# Entry
Amino acid sequence: MPNEQNEKSKSEGKNFIYNIIEEDIKNNKNEGKIITRFPPEPNGYLHIGHAKAICLSFSAAAKYGGKCNLRFDDTNPANEDMEYVNSIEEDVKWLGFSWDKKFWASDYFEKMYECAEKLIQTGDAYVCDLNADEIRETRGTLTEPGVDSPYRNRTIDENLKLFREMREGKFEDGSKVLRAKIDMSSSNINMRDPVIYRIARIHHHNTGDDWCIYPMYDFAHPLEDAIEGVTHSLCTLEFEDHRPLYDWFLEKLKWPNPPRQIEFARLNLTGTIMSKRKLKKLVDEGKVSGWDDPRMPTIAGIRRRGYTPASIRKFCDDIGVAKSNSIVDTAMLESCIRDDLKEVVVSKNVVFDPIKVVITNYPEEGEELMEIENNRNNEALGSRKVPFSRELYVDGEDFMMNPVKKYFRLFKGNEVRFKGAYFIKCNDVVTDDEGKVIELLCTYDPETRSGSGFDGRKVKGTIHWIDKRTAVKIDVNEYEDLFIKDGDEMKFNEGSKIRRECFAEPSIEEMNPGDKVQFFRHGYYTKDEDGSFNRITPLKSSWKK
Ligand code: ATP
Ligand code: MG
# Structure
């Protein structure tokens, strides 16, 4: 299901973010300098939604000769971890981007504190003793204004003294907060005296126990951008209603050349969920093998699944940027990897649900090496030699006891081409007592050897095969959507991983983990670290460009 908003933004030819940046350059804002940033919170692994944000911020900087920084937004110490920091760096690099500088928001705690004192001094912030529930209850609703806090009119001196005491640790966690003094009846609830500092005795990975007060996101974020000289701060749509507050802080602090926040739609994909919190739950509950389970929409998972960085960048480009949230069909992502692999990977014969074939007129000890092209879309990839002998395997799908109409593969009495080998005719089917097919008794026509120029007669079907003696048993993982709809909820799909045992031609053993391959007529696969093969995507899709 293509998404109309995005189609529209693409047909308009340009992305609206680029238009804003170009306008700013034209007006010589910031002397034409462009600085963007990607600001992940290190509380989980990045997912493909983040890839969209990464592509946007890095590409915008590159397009206009600017710079893009990586900033760890580590102002909320509770959920953060160095494992996440390392994975984020790895993922950004893997996507093909290099940041100009790497920053830690927590390095600005002192500076943020100074800014908060400044707001107190200009009468724009106050210490409030209401607890979290009371603050929520007095905030009002979309239709009703909020109620002023009884602490709203404390003097500047009193506020300064209390705020300093908050920092010194004189008060208990949650007993006081610092709030911006804006407007309790603003139509934008974010502007109703939002909390900007809270007391929380939590150990921080960077600043240790130096602080017992921590800034709130809405206050910290504009300062982080401003301190780093960011010119265009790209973020997702849920921050649109926070932009007035973002601008308010920088205006009150009289920040010269304040950054400009621009919002774009979050990426959502069918059959999965973009939320670090929900993905972490799957990891913690052991529903998946880890953050890099090939079913996960994380960049680590997608990488292990066999996606290439180029295919992800292409996807992010194709979906475009829009101003309204929507769900993109995962089939579109699959189509990007198919396009990327189509002409560059070799194919191999792999047989699923094998059926044994005996070529009754072929010499008992006979063996030949058949030359098979590696990639039918790219001759430059050459060919490989595949052993052929009297006993072979074919794919379960390639035989039918009672053929349906237009079935051109193997059935009793039919002749097909074994790809790269001979015309082979099925003469008899051996079954067990239950009627299960045990083997197909066939004959070959030596005249029809592939490459011999034989043009005596034609056959309609071509199938692939494996030599039984040299067949290599492999484990293949087929993946389905990680989440399925259950009413309005998305729930974990217990059937999202199907492990199958298959037979492959011997050259499969030359493959290394991470290598990609086409299993002839089945799909694209990659070899996993554990030796099994992950299906990246089947060959065909329903996705229409
Ligand atoms: P999550 O809800 O998955 O934890 P987040 O927004 O809290 O995501 P951050 O680490 O705060 O994650 O995000 C870093 C950047 O990535 C932000 O600028 C955010 O707007 C952007 N981002 C996060 N999710 C998406 C998404 N689904 N599509 C596009 N951009 C996203
Ligand atoms: Mg977040």
Summary: Residues 41 surround magnesium ion (ligand 2) (CB under 6 Å). The chain has a mean pLDDT of 94.
